[in-house]
């Protein structure tokens, strides 16, 4: 196996391993009394002694001896930059992990720094990064180092009123920049003035988490926070002739979404948290940033601590089977160190960021005894850590420097945030602005492991985080040797298997067992993901069902509405039609009445003036003709019945003078009418006579007139009547 020093020079991360000390005797006793049947934990991890000349007196390799359960696995050996054993203190980690050079790079070189902890749940990540009631963590120690190193050069928002505005003007992440006093006042109000608060434990919020409403109580006064270990002897040089501003922001990645931890709700309506995007902005086209964060300018170490505590309260933590205060999200604490020449232009800020990450712990669903939302969270956590593992494995596999395209960091938010800015950015010149070349980020990963904890989960983490890995054949009797021993026993007598070949086979079998173990781990992770997916599918199905029911209800409602609307319109139409029909009938009746009225009034005939003499002569001729016809008819009748002399038809005598009078006088209509009546009274059955009678001018006029009435409209009738 290659020396870690050689490996780490080409890696993106320096990877350190910290072993967690066993729980206190009291905790062990309690556990034993609670679970008396549980076998005492077995230590399955051994630290290889350091090679003094090469490794600076610190161990770098560990060996995993799988516990003696039914599944026998290969012995694996892992290499790290350094290994810290159980007795290591916070100060040792701070001094020996390269946190100091990291802070130095941020202040002096303008190089971004990343410090992260990775491990199984309960292995001591939060303890390392955030400390405990009595000890400071790496975050507090880094802040302390930073503020003390920049002691005289840090600008205070209270004494530099234009500071916030000038920082906001150069900020590229669309953030809201506030001074610490403004921020804390908005969260705690007068609470900051209150004294004698007892220290609350590190945030403990149960899984039914809801962000609390303002104005809340200050969790802890800075003076009550631990001051141990002391690092007053350590400092890093600041750039002379430069002035600094320190801007703090905090966010968490929960269920693959980014949430601002400092955007504390200002009223009850704001309790729903809005997730933020990790993207390139207008001011930062070639570098992704978390856009829209709330950033707080902290003028002192104490202010920064209170802001940190405030953000931690917002972070998701829950009690699981493995840890009573388990982080359910990946927490990011960012310290931007802004720098400009002393008394320089407002817009001349440059700087670098120190990002400290407390990753959520991976865990096996079986051990964690989680369910529902917490199980789904665990699925997301394990998934993101699996992607992180893939990225880390890439760096340990690739020895020839890293190309960004080789690291599959775009698979989830966590790896994107951790790796996206790990590579140096090319300098970019645009018409409007020049984007400065950025150095590659320096990164430190502290892997925490409990040698008495869950072997499978821990070995999985170690496998992908270690800088190098070696699988060795165990010297102790193993499953493979048992198998081969058994097989050898069954070999027919006289045939012996060669020992060298058996050793090779044993190695292959052990490798296979190791692979099976790894695959089992993956299966477990996939099972958790499957459970989460199934939960989501069930939820989606329920939503779908609800949506369908709602759609059905809406359809029924709309149908009913349409139906009633149609009925209403039909009714309206029917009424309108009935009205029109009634009116029409009335009009017809009236029309008929008026016709009848006109008829009853009599027919007024306008006759053309005629030549009296000619007319009289004509009538006389006609009269004569009729008389002749009559006589002819009488004769005919007599001829038909010679015995019975027929009764002489009584022919009304048509008085010619009557006709003459009627024709001559204007008012003689009545007389003329009676003359015609007499004429009509004649029993003229002969069609010829009838035809000749029908041809009389009077009859013709009457017929024509009657037909014209039928065709007349109201106005014409009125005109006719008046006429
Ligand atoms: N080096 C250590 N020294 C003393 N106590 C420790 C150490 N490491 C961890 N512990 C204790 O172990 C418990 C669990 O540790 P911690 O909460 O840091 O685990 P974690 O890895 O952050 O878990 P999770 O991922 O669930 O948040 C805590 O009570 C902590 O005080």
Automatic annotation (TrEMBL):
Q: Which residues form a coiled coil?
A: 509-557
| Listed Polar residues bias regions | 194-211
Residue ranges for the region (Disordered) are 194-220
SUPFAM superfamilies recorded: P-loop containing nucleoside triphosphate hydrolases
What keywords appear on the UniProt entry? Answer: ATP-binding, Coiled coil, Microtubule, Motor protein, Nucleotide-binding
Q: Which residues form the Kinesin motor domain?
A: 12-471
Q: Where are the transmembrane segments?
A: none
The record's Pfam families line, in alphabetical order, gives: Kinesin
> Entry's InterPro entries?
Kinesin-like_fam, Kinesin_motor_CS, Kinesin_motor_dom, Kinesin_motor_dom_sf, P-loop_NTPase
**Residue sites binding ATP per the record:** 119-126
Q: What Gene3D superfamilies does UniProt report for this protein, alphabetically?
A: Kinesin motor domain (3.40.850.10)
Superkingdom = Eukaryota
| Family from the record | Belongs to the TRAFAC class myosin-kinesin ATPase superfamily. Kinesin family.
Q: What is this protein called?
A: Kinesin-like protein
Organism expressing this protein natively: Stereocaulon virgatum
């Amino acid at each position: 196996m290659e020396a870690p020093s050689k490996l780490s020079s080409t890696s993106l991360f320096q990877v350190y391993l910290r072993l967690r000390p066993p729980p206190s005797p009291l905790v062990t006793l309690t556990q034993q009394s609670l679970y008396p049947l549980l076998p005492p934990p077995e230590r399955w991890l051994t630290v290889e002694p350091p090679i003094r000349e090469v490794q600076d007196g610190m161990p770098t390799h560990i060996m995993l001896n799988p516990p003696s359960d039914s599944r026998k696995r290969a012995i694996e050996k892992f290499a790290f930059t350094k290994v810290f054993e159980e007795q290591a203190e916070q100060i040792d980690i701070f001094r020996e992990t390269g946190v100091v050079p990291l802070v130095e790079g941020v202040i002096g070189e303008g190089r971004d720094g990343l410090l992260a902890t990775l491990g199984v749940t309960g292995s001591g990540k939060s303890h390392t990064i955030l400390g405990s009631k009595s000890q400071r963590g790496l975050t507090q120690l880094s802040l302390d180092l930073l503020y003390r190193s920049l002691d005289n050069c840090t600008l205070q928002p209270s004494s530099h009123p234009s500071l916030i505005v000038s920082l906001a003007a150069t900020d590229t992440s669309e953030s809201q920049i506030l001074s610490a006093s403004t921020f804390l006042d908005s969260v705690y109000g007068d609470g900051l003035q209150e004294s004698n608060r007892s220290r609350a434990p590190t945030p403990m919020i149960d899984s039914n988490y809801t962000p609390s409403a303002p104005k809340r109580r200050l969790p802890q006064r800075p003076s009550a926070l631990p001051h141990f270990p002391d690092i007053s002897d350590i400092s890093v040089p600041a750039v002379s002739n430069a002035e600094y501003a320190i801007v703090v922001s905090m966010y968490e990645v929960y269920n693959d979404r980014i949430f601002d931890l400092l955007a504390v709700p200002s009223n009850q309506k704001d309790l729903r948290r809005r997730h933020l995007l990790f993207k390139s902005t207008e001011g930062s086209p070639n570098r992704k940033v978390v856009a829209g964060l709330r950033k707080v300018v902290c003028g002192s170490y104490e202010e920064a601590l209170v802001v940190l505590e405030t953000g931690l309260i917002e972070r998701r933590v829950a009690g699981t089977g493995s840890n009573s205060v388990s982080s359910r999200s990946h927490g990011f604490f960012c310290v931007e160190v802004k720098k400009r020449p002393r008394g320089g232009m407002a817009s001349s800020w440059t700087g670098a960021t120190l990002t400290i990450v407390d990753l959520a712990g991976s865990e096996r669903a079986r051990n964690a005894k989680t369910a529902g939302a917490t199980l789904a969270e665990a699925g997301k956590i394990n998934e993101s850590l699996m992607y992180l593992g893939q990225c880390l494995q890439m760096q340990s596999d690739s020895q020839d420097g890293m190309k960004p395209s080789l690291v599959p960091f775009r698979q989830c938010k966590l790896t994107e945030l951790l790796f996206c800015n790990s590579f140096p950015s090319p300098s970019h010149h645009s018409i409007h602005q020049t984007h400065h070349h950025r150095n590659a980020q320096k990164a430190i990963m502290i892997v925490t492991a409990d040698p008495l904890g869950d072997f499978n989960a821990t070995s999985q983490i170690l496998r992908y985080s270690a800088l190098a890995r070696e699988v060795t054949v165990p010297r102790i009797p193993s499953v493979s040797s048992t198998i081969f021993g058994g097989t050898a026993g069954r070999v027919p007598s006289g045939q012996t298997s060669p020992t060298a070949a058996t050793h090779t086979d044993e190695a292959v079998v052990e490798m296979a067992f190791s692979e099976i173990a790894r695959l089992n781990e993956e299966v477990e992770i996939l099972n958790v993901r499957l459970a989460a997916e199934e939960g989501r599918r069930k939820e989606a199905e329920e939503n779908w069902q609800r949506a369908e029911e709602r759609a059905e209800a809406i359809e029924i409602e709309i149908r009913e509405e349409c139906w009633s609307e149609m009925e209403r319109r039909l009714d309206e139409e029917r009424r309108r039609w009935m009205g029109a029909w009634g009116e029409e009938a009335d009009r017809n009746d009236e029309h008929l009445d008026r016709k009848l009225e006109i008829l009853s009034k009599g027919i007024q005939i306008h006759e053309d003036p005629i030549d009296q003499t000619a007319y009289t002569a004509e009538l006389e001729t006609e009269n004569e003709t009729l008389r002749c016809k009559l006589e002819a008819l009488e004769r005919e009748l007599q001829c038909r019945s010679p015995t019975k002399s027929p009764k002489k038809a009584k022919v009304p005598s048509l008085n010619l003078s009557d006709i003459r009078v009627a024709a001559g006088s204007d008012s003689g209509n009545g007389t003329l009418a009676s003359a015609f009546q007499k004429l009509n009274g004649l029993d003229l059955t002969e069609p010829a006579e009838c035809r000749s009678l029908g041809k009389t001018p009077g009859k013709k006029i009457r017929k024509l007139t009657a037909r014209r009435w039928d065709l007349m409209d109201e106005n014409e009738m009125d005109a006719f009547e008046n006429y």
